[in-house]
Amino acid sequence: MVPSILFEIMLIGLLGIGSQWLAWRYRMPAIVVMSITGLLVGPILGIINPEEDFGRLYGSIISVAVAIILFEGSLNLSFKELRGLGKPVFRISTVGAFIAWILGSLTAHYIAGLSWAVAFVIGGLFIVTGPTVIMPLLRQSKLKPRPAKILKWEGIIVDPIGALLAVFAFEIIAYFTSSNPDGSALLLFFAASIFAAIFGWVCGRGIGWMFETGHVPEFLKSPVVFVVVILCFTIADEIMHETGLLSVTAMGITLANMGISSVSDMRHFKENITILLISAIFIMLTASLQMETLLHIFSPNIIGYVLLMMFAVRPLSIFLSTIGTGLTTNEKLLVGWIAPRGIVALTVSSYFASILTDAGYEDASILTTLTFGLVFFTVLAHGFSIGWLAKKLNLSMEGRPGSLIVGSNKFTVELAKSLAKANVPIIIVDNSWERLRLARESGVPFYHEDMLSEQTEYNLDTIPYEYLIAATTSNSYNALVCTTFMPEYGRTNVFKLSPYDTEYGTSKEIVSKVGGRVLFKKEVNLDALIEKIENGFVFRQTTITEQYSYKQYLQEKDEETVFLYLIKPSGQIKYYSEEMRTVPGIGDTIVSLMPPKKEKARIEARLEEN
């Protein structure tokens, strides 16, 4: 029975998001899982073939999805991020791209056996990496900020450049091989590229102006942006193929640097759409491949080409282009290795395979096989190696999940000190230099700025911190912080101290409708915790063993004891909260705030045992 189009759409969505979940659950590269899943349901098992089943719509769906993904990625390209990194990013995106084009073209000719014409077209295309493959890798690997930003900027900026280089190479070839050379096609190419960049800038400025002046209501802002992105891409692409990518990139960068708050507010929604599109597109592309294409990628000339691109062309282009840019050798090694190819390479190469073949270049028929070989091997190699290599080069933020605490006071400083003793990365953020005095005197890492300010977003490195705790004296500010950062940290990793006022009471309905889980117990708010610290309460670690069970611990604990957090044997931290249902097991260490008399009794009992 042939599946209906509706069933196929459902299956693609299910497999794409299912692959993302499996990758998250078992800590695998998402792009690897998606690629393998697509191959299984496509050429291997023959369940679906989206290119055949969707017909003419297939190419349009892929093109629009790529445009939206590239636009969303470019929305993250704020020039403020480039402080200290402008020189290496510029060099890699220009000099590095040019070197990679020349070396890649030479490799395609001498190793893959392509004619000079086809080699220079494909050499230009293969300089791309792209947000569809780079972003999932960065999300998974937890790189330090410098290499992560370089890879992100390169992936988004070079994407349209690579496509344009391929078009430029084709136009040059057509000009020199024509019996009646006409320079109008070349002039059209340059004019169309300039128009695409200007048109993207105009669309970005226009959207920004409409948002700032209130010409678009809040509920229509996201739909308007997406419609304009498609319009921006389509008009530019209709004038000259592949210039649409340049246009949407220019639009995204323009909006990213206008400082419009409503654009930032939509970012998490657009990220969710992008994840859905990436998941679906990877499944569609890999499921549409033919079995002979898969078998052909293991031919010696293609494997030799892929290996040289990975181990020679990419590292050389990075090392040569970053001379004198201030990058360390380790950063050059990492950036020089990580260059997975993705959706743009696959879609654009299929376009050029057809037009080059029609133009009489028979060797262009292997472009799809060559492209998939490079995509598949780079996705596998870089997907599985980025985390390991980053650790080896000391460019990874891996370690125990850290905690970012908003609000400096007697309790949070003591909590931070206890976490630091457990080797947990910690930082306290507060906009009051006076309140931060406690943190400074205790040697606790701190950051002096409002957590919700734009300066904090760009200057504070939040990568080491998986948990956020809002613990200021203002319950409404705590709720606002939690609501703001919940999409970034995840619902289960954002906490606030109890907003319940034991004297006047607080509506449970109101509390449940704002962001953040209530930390510890609802009966224990910040005032109560500070009072306990002032009364000499101490932080106590107790490890649950076979001889000393959790049940025994509960029987012996004082009624005033407050459970704070668990340290699992793996090093993972689990905070106690109103919603916590985890029962500590053998090997878990419970950290609690205990009355001084109880702690004194424990010490005396230990002395008597000895």
UniProtKB/TrEMBL annotation:
GO terms for molecular function: antiporter activity. Residues 404-484 form the RCK N-terminal domain. GO terms for cellular component: plasma membrane. InterPro entries: Cation/H_exchanger_TM (IPR006153), Na+/solute_symporter_sf (IPR038770), NAD(P)-bd_dom_sf (IPR036291), RCK_N (IPR003148). It is a multi-pass membrane protein. Residues 22-392 form the Cation/H+ exchanger transmembrane domain. GO terms for biological process: potassium ion transport; proton transmembrane transport. This is Sodium:proton antiporter. It comes from Ornithinibacillus caprae. The lineage of its organism: Bacteria, Bacillati, Bacillota, Bacilli, Bacillales.
